[in-house]
Amino acid sequence: MDINKVRSHFPILDRKTYLNSCSYGALADSVRRALEQYLDDRDSHGASWEQWVGDQERLRESTAMLLGAQASEIALVPSLSAGLNTLTSCLDFTGKRNKVVVTSHDFPTTAQIWHAQKRRGAVVHRVELEDCVDPGDVLGRFAQAIDSTTAVVSVPYICYRNGRKLDVGAIAELAHAHGALMIVDAYQAVGTFPVDVKALDADVLLGGYLKYLMGTAGMAYLYVKGELVDTLQPATSGWFAQEDVSAMAIAENVPAYSARRFEGGTPTVSAIGACRAGLDIVHDTGIDAIAAQNTLITDAIKREAAARGWVSATGDWPHGAMIALRSTDMLKLVARLGEAGIVVSCRDGNIRISPHFYNNENDIQTLFEELDRNSDLMVQE
């Protein structure tokens, strides 16, 4: 991979040290062109439904290819929240199997959605991971939580606050041993390293395009294992969720035989082209090359932080493309870095340093030179 060539396609890198891909991926020139093409098409043709629907199917196919899935197993939804809400409407919590196992690493939207199911009979059990220094202890905690009453085990692949990575495949094995569904929030994972839904044996996996897939907001994806699709009947619907979208039927609801049944109304057509363009970058670069560059850069971050004795919130855990460092005043530190042209974000008392394959070691050198100037805001071991 020619890193200089890669960087030339992301104009923000000429002006900023951008290390905030966990929040929003850097804008590539090809993604900008796709957004502009949508506007040009509106000016030229007004409505281009055949083109937009065709592009949506191509986005579905491209997403399936990245995940090791079939296109028929992919639903395209406005957001991860929308996809998960539709999925939860399929589930029955009125019987003895009503437990939902979640984690203290969950992103708020997934936790809030599961808590909202309590009125439908769900019992939410949270696996606490904050005090788990040894990642080897994680499976034991899940083993204690998952039992014959468990309906769902819902976990984030990567914690959005500190970058810690869970052994999703091993947790899925525990879930399936007790007959529970395994649901994975992979928003902070897909696009940074290879994710194969079949190898993980995930029943459901959700994510979106605006972070490491370098697309834009307004579009997300929901993978549902093919053999489960027919068993899940959403209580939500819409014309794009029908088996025959063009039927325009109003006398009945005929859900698609594929994962499209988890979709709804008119898709965010303005986002489709941009998300396709972002995915094209991932495919063209190669996910293995992307993962190797992300490892190189995150290793550099860990090395520089350790040399200074600064506390890592990521700790010794396996991690994704994010390293979190403790700060005495995270908001002030993010602001000071921003004034120096360095873009990071913060959560939970940490600054989140989230590179992607377009970052290089010079970016990390620039970051740590500025952190040295603000070392009073860093937590020492």
Automatic annotation (TrEMBL):
Q: Which domain of life is it from?
A: Bacteria
Listed InterPro entries: Aminotrans_V_dom (IPR000192), PyrdxlP-dep_Trfase (IPR015424), PyrdxlP-dep_Trfase_major (IPR015421), PyrdxlP-dep_Trfase_small (IPR015422)
State the Gene Ontology terms under molecular function: transaminase activity
Q: Which Gene3D superfamilies match?
A: Aspartate Aminotransferase, domain 1, Type I PLP-dependent aspartate aminotransferase-like (Major domain)
Taken from the record, one Pfam family name reads Aminotran_5
**Which N-terminal residues, if any, form the signal peptide?**
none
- Say if the entry is tagged with keyword Phosphoprotein: no
Q: What is this protein called?
A: Aminotransferase class V-fold PLP-dependent enzyme
Q: Which organism is it from?
A: Kineobactrum salinum
Upper lineage ranks? Bacteria, Pseudomonadati, Pseudomonadota, Gammaproteobacteria, Cellvibrionales
